[in-house]
Amino acid sequence: MMATRSLFRVNLGLPPGAWRWVALAFVAAALAAGGLAIATPDAARWAGVALLAGIGAVASIFLYAVWPRDNMSAQDARRVAEAAAKANVAWAITASDGAVLECNAVYRRMTGVTASEAPPPPELALAGEPSAAVLYRLTRSAAEGQAREESFKVAPGLDLVAAVRPMGQGQTVWWFTPRLGESAPQAEAPQAPVAVPLRQLAINDIVRDAPLGVALAGTDGTLLETNKAFSEFFAAKTALTGRKIASLTDPAESAVVTDFIAETAKAGRKGSVELHAAGRTERTAELHASAASPERVILYLIDVTDQRTLELKFAQSQKMQTVGQLAGGIAHDFNNLLTVITGNCDLLKTRHRPGDPSFIEVNEISNASVRAANLVGQLLAFSRQQTLQPKVSQLSDSLGDFVHSLKRLLPESVTLKTEFVDNLWLVYADAHQVTNAIMNLVVNARDAMPDGGAVTIRTANDAVKEARKLGTADMPPGDYVRIEVSDTGTGIPKEYRERIFEPFFTTKDIGKGTGLGLSTVFGIVKQTNGFITVDSEVGHGTRFAIYLPRYYGEAPTQERVVQRDVTGQDTILLVDDEDGVRRIAARGLENRGYKVLQAPGGEEALEILNDETTPIHLLITDVKMAGMDGPTLAREVRKQKPDMRILFISGFIGDVFRENEERPEDVHFLTKPFNLNQLTAKVKDVLSSPPPGAPN
Predict the structure, then answer these.
(1) Other C-beta atoms lying within 10 Å of the C-beta of residue 311
(2) Beta strands 90-94 and 172-180: pairing type?
(3) Which of 42, 186, 203, 224 pairs with 257 at a CA distance of 20 to 30 A?
(4) On the CB side of 73, how many CA atoms lie within 13 Å of its CA?
(5) pTM here?
(6) Which residue has the higher pLDDT, 191 or 569?
(7) How far apart are CA 556 and CA 430, in angstroms?
(8) Across residues 532-553, what is the average pLDDT?
(9) Is the backbone of residue 529 left (phi > 0), alpha (psi -120 to 50) or beta?
(10) How many CA atoms lie within 13 A of 46 on its CB side?
């Protein structure tokens, strides 16, 4: 502190002592003589004036010599500068913009910079909340031209006094003086954060809690230092120092990792390689390396497990989308063919009754078309593009009747058990598709028990209070109807569990499975806004659980099924671009007494509708057609005839309704392929329903 104050000490031009008093006496005598000469000019004359001028000049020289000065001698300046530089107090002089003009070595050590580096300004000299607040206040005081001094704690028992004093020309002097704090710490008082010089932080302090792994290794892969993330990836319970990274990776990748590190150290270029932790192959990481010296390599480990999982899911989604588009294209055309086959089989059955020699062949063709229709339905189900007809239903009723048909699918060595709860909540779903999903699960359980066992179907009301992680999906809180299908079979190995819902994935022998069963279940559940999960252990069986959202509303009234008349005399306009479908459907309806007008497309149908001479009671149209599609035709018809009843028929609708802002549940729909009995029954239902816009 004394070194700083000496910079402002005032010195005189002459050395101190008697010389200064002699000079002052001579000046006083010169002034007296000058006064006498001025008072008696006649006695002094020109000689007095000359004497006065000489004395005045000498007095001026002496006066200049003894006048106080701010400058110090070069020797004094060197002495003061040397003392200030060697002081144990850190000081710095800053300009008006805050840049450091001068500082001593203590200040450089405090801020962590070398002699060749520019020292940081005082307000950035220390890290930590206590110092930041103090230095900010000091900076404000310096800017306002005010002196200020404050202290703060830097370590237990040690304080740092920081002071600021304004100088001329906008410059400011700072100094930092250490001071011993209170020696008796209070146990209850929380310890204040310690201010640490920025440049004095060790490298381990910086990367210790970094989100990626960092390590220093030798050229042979021996780890010298590692941070927390690096050790956690390999699930290390002890320090990794001294171990080779090759021993921590999957054995199949050890040689690749070792060569990669050696090549990086030798060539000095950066690169990366992918690796898996030994015994934890589900974890994937990218190892980046750069040469730090001829003997050292810096390793950076980035855990990319989640990224790879997302990439696989995206690839799977693209595959599903591609297969779904293919299935949709096939389904539309194939269902048209199946409709023609099924319809003609129905017509043949009217002429070839049981007992007729041709009845067996006709019946085989009909059964084959049904199986083919089920296969197309599976293709659409796993791609989530099948046409559902959801209704509010009580699944207990559907499952109770369905269990009897399931028993026919199981051998005598497999026992079917049921545990159904009373008062099962309502769901809004396609009950037929839900039972189809359960059937696929039961068949899958049967195949997992070649030596026999038991299959159990359970139902329950499940009030989920918190979100649950079900595989890759998150099920939100809410009320669900849970349907479980469990078996006592062989179980599913861990490496297969993530793939069991993939289409065409199967572990069965060739010819014993298509790989569409579980993918069909997954598609039906997802299309119903539900969730599915699987728990399995090798040798202890498997349990599938389906969660369907609860429907909050009243149960529908049960309608008594009676044999009814499906004939009629109404006029129907049938529109389909497939000639075979249009002809067989028209024949079936005409056989029931209806008058049928046919149109191969939407434009032709509008021309027929514009003919007012023939009243039309029902429009039956295919959904996907060349040119004007079904929903577009329906909108045009409703502009002219708002009360026209419309029945859509299709085997695959895709996103046609969404594109035309129509919802399938707002209209009547019949799925292809259909037989003639289904067609005539649906037509009777639509004609018996209120017209659009009529009050319920």
Answers:
(1) 11
(2) antiparallel
(3) 203
(4) 8
(5) 0.45
(6) 569
(7) 14
(8) 89
(9) left
(10) 0
